[in-house]
Design goal:
With about 280 residues, the chain is mainly beta. Helix content is about 5%, strand content about 50%. The protein contains 2 helices and 21 strands. The strands form 5 sheets. Strands 1, 2, 4, 7, 12 and 13 form a 6-stranded mixed beta sheet that branches. Strands 14, 15, 17, 18 and 19 form a 5-stranded antiparallel beta sheet that branches. A hairpin with a 2-residue loop joins strand 9 and strand 10.
């Protein structure tokens, strides 16, 4: 199914920092991360849109990494092979958390993380057919030492005789989708805006004082992130400012990319938002 071998093998090693010599490694059995794949539909109708979910269950005190692993680590990767005619969108990751150890800052997940991909079925599907989606995931899971892990899974969906029916996992998929970053236009907690120019974009968000703000930058070719601070304002509110230097010529006429995600939290509540520099500021 996939070209990369070694599905059942993980490697235990001490993760080197950037520029450090590679550490010695030894084989260890897998078991620190479990992967489950499921869908929000039990059957597929022609022309319909549905979702695949990729749920990682991570052993206590261990963590895997986000799209931007931070100062060290390796991004989690998910590859999907769909039947001919099916269109699979990008894999969407939930917002990460900061993981700090001995002054090294990483971005990732502990406990559980569920990624989502949207799938569009072709306009015509033969009745009575089965459609298999093959999935491969690769990750680095760490707790002082680190394990390189991978797994292959598959899910098969049948052509619906009429309207597609929801799967028993549809509620789980809906909950996982709610944990994904939302468009910035959904930001209602305070004020958020882009200023500056396309080449020198500045993002600012202001929230009431009982909310916290964090920004997690993505690694985007042609975009450099210039971290800012969260400051307390005289009226008691909090403001986060972050600058992005954009190589407009390098990016060309393509739509502005997502350059990071914003986390807004209060107690156990949290909200995530995608940051896409607004065109034509």
């Amino acid at each position: 199914m996939f070209e990369r071998p070694g599905v059942l093998l993980v490697v235990a090693c001490t993760l080197p920092l950037a520029g450090a010599a590679a550490a010695s490694c030894e084989s260890r059995p897998a078991g620190d991360v479990q992967l489950a794949v499921y869908s929000d539909v039990a059957e597929v109708a022609a022309g319909s849109t549905f979702h695949l979910a990729f749920e990682f269950t991570i052993e206590k005190h261990w963590h895997i990494y986000w799209l931007n692993a931070g100062d060290t680590g390796m991004p989690t990767e998910i590859e999907i092979k769909a039947p001919e005619g099916f269109s699979v969108g990008p894999v969407l990751f939930p917002g990460p958390r900061r993981l700090e150890d001995a002054g090294v800052m990483s971005f990732g997940y502990e406990g559980e993380a569920t990624m989502i991909a949207e799938v569009k079925a072709p306009a015509a599907l033969p009745p009575g057919s089965d459609w298999r989606f093959d999935v491969r995931a690769d990750w680095l899971v760490c707790k002082q030492a680190c394990l390189l892990g991978s797994a292959e899974r598959s899910i098969t969906l049948r052509t619906a005789a009429g309207e597609p029916t929801a799967s028993p996992d549809s509620v789980r998929v809906a909950e996982a989708r709610r944990r994904l970053p939302q468009p910035l236009k959904e930001f209602k907690i305070g004020r958020a805006a882009w200023t500056g120019t396309p080449a020198a974009a500045r993002f600012e968000a202001t929230v009431p004082g009982d909310f916290d703000l964090e920004l997690f930058p993505l690694i985007v070719e042609g975009v450099e992130s210039c971290p800012g601070l969260v400051e307390e304002l005289p009226d008691g509110s909090r403001r986060l400012a972050w600058a992005f230097d954009v190589d407009v010529k390098r990016l060309g006429p393509a739509p502005p990319p997502t350059v990071g995600v914003l986390r807004v939290s209060r107690g156990d509540e949290q909200w995530w938002f995608d940051l896409v520099p607004e065109a034509g500021r």
